[in-house]
Structure formats: C-alpha cells, structure tokens
Amino acid sequence: MSASRRSGATDELGPDEPGASGEPGGSDLLAALLDGMDAALCAFDAAGVVTHWNREAERILGWSAKDAVGRHGFAGWAVRTADAEEVQARLLSAMRAPGRQVHEFALLTKDGGRVLVRTQSAAVRGADGEPAGVYCAFSEVHAQIDLERSIALSEALFEDAEWGVVLVDADLRPAVVNAHASRAFGIGRASALGRPLGELLAQGVEELEAALTHVLAEGAPPAPAEVWVTLRSPAEGEQRRCWRNAFLPLASPLAEEPVPLGVGWLFTDVTEAKRGEQEAALLRFRTKQLHRAARAAAECEDPLEAATVHLDYALAGFADHALIDRLADAPRTPDAAGAVRLVRLAATPAGAPGPSVLTGAAGLPVRYEPGHPALSCVERTGCVRAEAGSVPPELAREWALRRQWPGDAVHALCAVLRSRGRTLGVVTFLRGAARTPFERSDASYAEDVALRIAAALDLAGATREP
Predict the structure, then answer these.
(1) Which among 261, 312, 242, 317 has a CA at the least distance from the CA of 286?
(2) Can you tell me the distance from the alpha carbon of 83 to that of 91, in angstroms, rounded to the nearest whole number?
(3) pTM to 2 decimals?
(4) CA separation for the pair 195, 177 (Å, rounded)
(5) How far apart are CA 426 and CA 403, in angstroms?
(6) What share of residues in the chain are helix, strand, coil (percent, to 5)?
(7) Residue 21, pLDDT score
(8) What is the C-alpha end-to-end distance of the chain, expressed in Å?
(9) What is the C-alpha separation between 376 and 243, in angstroms, rounded?
(10) DSSP letters along 14-28, please?
C-alpha cells in the first residue's frame, strides 16, 4: 500500500477491513484516491511525523511510502540537515495559519539529487476543530511554472490578444469567445456562446464549418487559411472581410485515448492587405493588357481595326460586352449645341464570345432615349455609370433592352472618346449579374482605353478626308 498511516488513526479514518456488504474499506478508498492524484502529496500529524505518501511523491523523489511513512519530518533523508529545521517549521506553520501556505524549497531524492519543489500546505483539523496535522501537496517547480504559463497564456489570449480567439465545441458552436472576436462578430461575448456560426456570419459559413470539421477529423492544417466572410452588423449592414485563420485540435490530456474537445480557432483581419494585393495584381494585369493592345494595334493597317483591337484587349477580365458609338455628325467641340446622335460603330457578339465586329455601315443613328447614359456621357464629357439595381431578372432584362444593350447587362460604364480637343463618340462596357458593379478604379481604366480608341478613330477620320 502506497498510502499508509500510523496506528491510532484507524478510528478516525475508518476501518481497514471491507464492510459487511463487500464494499472497500475507508483506508482502501483513501489509498486509491491518494495514489490516483496527479500531484505529489504527503501528510504529517501534529508532531510532524509523516503519515501519508502517495505514488506521485515517490515518482518525483524516489522515496517509497515504506521509506517515508513513520519518519519525523524530512530531516536526514528528504532535505539537507542544515535546512531541515527551517523546512519543518514552514510546513508545520500551516496548522496555525488560515488557508493554504505556498513555499518553495529543495528536497533530496533517494539517489542523492536535488529537486526544487513548490508546496501548498494546509491544516488538517480533527472532530473537535483543533489542528490534527498538516497535508502538503507539492510538484516540481518547472512543471508548476509550465502550468502557470499555460494559464497565463490562456488568459492573455482571451483578454488582450490582437487575434480573435474562439473555442469551438464538437458541435461547431462557440464555447468561449475573446474580446477581439466578439468585436469582429459585432456581438457581445456572452451572446455569441452556443449559437451556430450561421447566425453570426452571413457568408463564408460553409468554408469555416468545413475547415473546423476537417480539423476535428484529421488534425490541424499545415498553414493558415484565408476565408472571405460577410458579417452581419445591425449598425453598418453587411461587411465583407477577409480573415486569416489558424485551427488547433483540442483533446483531453486526462483520457487514455485522445478525446476531441473541439477546435481552437484563431483569426485576424487581413482585408486591407488582401485588397491591396488584389488591386496591385489587377493594375499589373491591366497595364500589360494596354501594352499588348498597343503592340497589336500598331500592326493594323486600318485604324478602325486598331480601335476594335483595343476594345477586345480591354474586355478581358473587365466586362462581358463592349460597344463603340461614334457621333453621327462632325466631331463635337466643347461649345457645340444641339441634340446628340450616335451611330453604332463596333460591338462584341451578343451570343458566343468572339472579336468585336464593325457595324453601322448604313450610318443610321442608334435609338437612344433621352437621358441615356451614352448621351449623358457625351454631354458631360466624362464617365457615366449606370446599373439596373436589385430587381428581378425580368425587369433587369427589360432595363437593358430599353437602352439598346444585350439583355443580360445589369452594370454599365460609358467613357467619352476625345481626341485633339473634340468628342468623337462613346465606348460602353457592360457587365452581367455575376460581376460586381463598376467602381472608380474601373472608370480610370476605361478612360485609358477610350483615349487609345479615340486616337484610332481620329486617325481613321483623318485618312479618309480628301
């Protein structure tokens, strides 16, 4: 038996032999409890004699219960003789002090080594309430420091971390949420607990749940994963953000077999950096397209063909359809007045994809209704954006056809064609419902393309003059 006691304590702790019902006696139960503890434990009676010694204490120091029980204090075996009196006094002082006492001192192992331990001791009181002894739980200092560091790290992550930290249970519901994560979700820490992720995020839930399920089944991925999510914010509406996520599987250290407790999910917002990368990549691509278009147009004998080459190169990754309309009359100067009439010069095929086709040989004006974006573009001498808005597909198709555009167009961007201080026409870029609306950066690119198309049209007009 690894936990023993001196004679005379039997009545207080319970009989040694099993009871009449065959259940284990009090001493057997006490021995099992002591031996099953993860911390080393010993106990002293009021005179300072060792009464209990468990297996963890034997593992740390090498002294067995048979070696330890019955000895008076640690003097001469578990501590140096010079330190024995001080150690004994500090341990037994717990009988006269309220609560637990924490001390650190060096103990001797059975093979002569020294181990620095941290002890927690408290008084054991008898039935009359008087101190009957002291129990002392101890562990190696480095193990205790590791535990304290782990606890401190956990508290820091859940209080002051610049990353969002969420503990997700096996049902993929948040069990613990730190302050940073609650701010990212736009909801209180307590309100987020136990709720499905679909109630916290409008989009990106499927990707996150798939990642969490993978971690529960297969373990942590080798690198962080970036996921675009859309947050539901009552004050600011839906916000699209990019999160860089790291996942850690959590398993119980107390079970013989790894038992999944959930997933530790850490994330940080990298939206601005990601958008910067995307804008830089888009700018590089568009610059290369302009360069390729210029080289291809330089090989065209017909300036009108050069204009369509610029249009085709600009269309890649930018829009679904494109149109070039020229002024039916002479080029328009800034002080010109009167109605604007436009003739369709070139257009991309409305059906299957292909190169732009020159049209409008008859010179008939396009039936643009008053206030049409192309007409407004000529009158303002600047870019004009238009879109169908959030309407059913039938109404969006009607909106496009009424403006003489392909039926699947829902976003439009018109850029004026100007050369030598004169307006020559309009180039129109159209996007379908699968694409995002045109932005300011798109308008700048459209203006660059329009300048090149306008130069080609101006050259075509100059070469056809008598």
Answers:
(1) 317
(2) 12
(3) 0.61
(4) 11
(5) 14
(6) 35, 30, 35
(7) 44
(8) 119
(9) 41
(10) --SS--TTSPPPHHH
